[in-house]
Amino acid sequence: MDIHHGEPCVNGTRIPVSMIVGSAADGMTFDEILDAYPQLKKESIQAALAYAADIVRHDVFLPLAG
């Protein structure tokens, strides 16, 4: 992953990991994501999802007081 404006992005692009993960969460298929971002490859999407999963596994989450 590269960093662009403080956000992790797919290597060689300015496409943030959050955009890919958000697109998948919104129900877009890999093919739809690839159509929307033709500079990506299937492996790029898989890497973005793996990166996001790794972050969730290793970050410490604290409950918000409310």
Structure characterization notes:
By secondary structure, the chain is mainly α. It has one domain: Winged helix-like DNA-binding domain superfamily/Winged helix DNA-binding domain (Arc Repressor Mutant, subunit A, Orthogonal Bundle). A two-stranded antiparallel sheet has the order 1-2.
Classify the secondary structure makeup into a structural class.
Answer: mainly alpha
Helix content: 40-55%
Strand content: 5-15%
CATH-scheme architecture: Orthogonal Bundle
In total, the number of domains comes to 1
* DSSP E strands, number: 2
Within the CATH hierarchy, at the fold level, what is the topology? Arc Repressor Mutant, subunit A
The CATH class name reads: Mainly Alpha
- The coarse overall form would be globular
Average of the residue pLDDT scores: 88
Q: What gyration radius follows from the Cα positions, in whole Å?
A: 13 Å
Topology:
Blueprint: E1 2-4, E2 7-9, H1 17-25, H2 30-36, H3 42-58
Antiparallel strand pairs: 1-2
Helix pairs in contact: 1-3
Summarize the structure.
This protein has 66 residues and is mostly helical. 50% of the residues lie in helices and 9% in strands. A two-stranded antiparallel sheet has the order 1-2.
Q: Which tags fit this structure?
A:
globular; Arc Repressor Mutant, subunit A; 50% helix; two-stranded antiparallel sheet; mainly alpha; single chain; 66 residues
